[in-house]
Specification:
The complex is a heterodimer. By secondary structure, chain A is mainly alpha-helical. Chain A contains 15 helices and 6 strands. Chain A is globular, with a radius of gyration of 20 Å. Chain A starts with a helix and ends with a strand. Chain B has 9 helices and 6 strands. The chains are: A mainly alpha, B alpha+beta. Chains A and B meet through strand 1, strand 2, helix 4, helix 5 and helix 8 of A and helix 1, helix 2, helix 3, helix 4 and strand 1 of B.
Chain lengths: 295, 258
């Protein structure tokens, strides 16, 4: 019964696999998964193997007892609640801000955040089963929620989003004891699978929304450099968690847009590079004089 | 069809539509944000304002300030050499991700260098606390006089012996054992001025359920009106009675000179 939809679903990236081979059709996906597993693994080295390279969790941490890291999303909420932070957290904030301003804010989402694995899984299953798109919650909803997340501490003095933030609950759970955190994982998975496609990361998550706002300064972008070679297979649109970011870069030549994907929602995941058989896309560091270094 | 797909949407041509879409999108977004906001607010307000049996680490700011400043990173947990501290999980009553300990399970060993306070990156654990004996994590309360063995006339007093601030935070106060009529009782008595709330007493209480418990100070500590004066304290301060004594005569019958 499902054969038709199954064939349709599994078609994304097929052409790329056939022309480039399996490895090149999954190169950035593999690198990303490696980075995500490494993020959790380095934190787990301490409790599991007694090697304390990094302590804490994604909210704040300390590398080799020296270098602090602080998540700007958390730090801003603390400040909005009217509380000061001590210098360690402020220095950590500077380091993390600097890093994401350099590589693009939403690199956090696709290369670091543990929830990405969950929502990517839901998106894959949704494609595989050929499920409909679900409720059309605007992608701007996340900015409204972001506003609420920062306004609430100013009124009530607590970090309210942390009561439900799946990103910190899951990452902390993996390191400090998971308990019923899997309920959060299942809820996000089912939301993305059955309620709204790209629902959590693309429409709800205020953390991603904040990291989007850190993106514009970054010189590291995906670029549709060989857009003339596009054969309109739509695989990149189907696989992209934020497909609206592709159109101006890929099809905007007449309007003088692109070829760099400049939309702040692009997570620099590089999946479009993987699934494109004609190799339209590439990662590049772009300089203001239009020169570029391809990655 | 192919042409239409190829052609990008010109924002100028679509202005009317996009404005309408923008307004409905914004209204929906604001609605969702409002829903989420009120939901979180009510969740936070209906949760226990102070977790009763989950004691904060030493130096923790007052609970309201603590919840605004604690970044839920667990660096205090990692710094604790006795694995006393842990982070509240989703299914536990405390605020998820915040540090606490359960005195009955693993109490605070009151490290002199207070590593948990040093580890806190934000200052939710106050670095003003440099003397662990000044910590106020909670207050020990001998809550059950019916099962405490010393109240029954025995000489258990384990809580007194294990107290790191022995003879100051817990003393043994002698009183008469009315049941036997001829014995003394030694009542473990907590003095809030010196009790740090470390929980050693609760942990080591020999009963199946501890008769002495660490509780949040704000829950158990009374407070006298500011105008209250203790006559005997004032007398000591002044070095003389507050009012001239009228009873300097030997007691006899009222109204009659002896």
């Amino acid at each position: 019964m499902k054969m038709g939809t199954l064939a349709k679903g599994s078609g994304v990236g097929k052409a790329a696999r056939e022309t480039k081979g399996w490895y090149l059709a999954h190169k950035w996906l593999l690198l990303r998964r490696f980075s995500q597993v490494l993020t959790i693994g380095l934190f787990l080295l301490g409790p599991l193997a007694g090697v304390w390279f990094i302590e804490g969790n994604l909210n704040a941490s300390l590398i080799l007892d020296k270098v602090p890291l602080t998540d700007p999303f958390l730090a801003l909420q603390v400040w909005m609640s009217g509380r000061e932070m001590e210098s360690q957290a402020v220095i950590g904030l500077g380091i993390v801000l600097g890093f994401y301003l350099l590589v693009g804010g939403r690199v956090f989402c696709s290369w670091v955040c543990p929830i990405n694995i969950v929502t990517d899984g839901a998106a894959w299953l949704r494609r595989f089963l050929g499920l409909p798109k679900g409720v059309g919650l605007s992608r701007n909803t996340r900015y409204w929620i972001l506003a609420a997340v920062f306004v609430l501490p100013a009124i009530g003095g607590q970090l309210y989003w942390e009561l439900i933030n799946p990103v910190s609950i899951v990452h902390r759970g993996l390191i400090f004891g998971f308990g019923l955190s899997w309920v959060v994982v299942v809820m996000v998975f089912l939301f993305d699978l059955l309620v709204s496609s790209d629902g959590w990361c693309g429409r709800i998550c205020p953390m991603g929304a904040m990291y989007s706002l850190l993106t514009p300064a970054s010189r590291l972008r995906v670029s549709a450099v060989k857009r003339q070679q596009c054969n309109d297979c739509l695989d990149c649109f189907k696989v992209c968690p934020e497909p609206h970011v592709i159109n101006p870069a890929l099809k905007g030549e007449e309007l003088g847009l692109g070829p760099n994907i400049l939309n702040i929602n692009c997570t620099n995941c590089g999946r479009c590079i993987d699934v494109c058989a004609p190799n339209v896309f590439e990662f590049a560091i772009n300089f203001s004089d239009n020169s570029r270094i391809k990655l | 069809m192919d042409e239409a797909k190829r052609k990008p949407v010109n924002p100028e041509e679509q202005k009317g539509v996009s404005r309408r879409v923008f307004i409905t999108d914004s209204a929906r977004g604001a609605g969702v944000a409002l829903l989420v906001g009120t939901g979180l607010w009510s969740k936070a307000e209906t949760a226990h304002p102070i977790p009763l049996r989950e004691i904060r680490p030493p130096g923790a700011l007052p609970e309201d300030d603590f919840l605004g400043r604690c970044i839920r990173c667990g660096l205090c947990v990692r710094s604790c050499p006795y694995d006393t501290l842990r982070l509240s999980r989703v299914e536990e009553p405390g605020v998820v991700g915040t540090p606490f300990f359960k005195a009955r399970e693993i109490p605070c060993e009151m490290c002199e260098d207070i590593p948990c306070v040093k580890a806190c990156p934000t200052g939710a654990l106050d670095k003003e606390l440099t003397d662990i004996e000044k910590a106020k994590m909670g207050l020990a309360v001998l809550s059950d006089h019916e099962t405490c063995l010393n109240y029954l006339g025995l000489r258990c007093e384990v809580c007194y012996r294990v107290c790191p601030v022995i003879d100051k935070a817990i003393t043994l106060e002698r009183s008469q054992n009315r049941r036997t009529g001829s014995h003394a009782m030694f009542i473990p008595t907590v003095h809030s001025e010196h009790c740090t709330g470390c929980g050693k007493c609760e942990q080591s209480c020999v009963l199946t359920e501890a008769a002495i418990n660490i509780l949040p100070i704000s829950l158990v500590k009374g407070e006298m009106g500011k105008h209250y004066k203790l006559g005997w304290v004032e007398k000591e301060k002044k070095g003389a009675p507050l009012v001239p004594s009228i009873l300097n005569k030997p007691l006899g019958q009222w109204g009659k000179d002896p």
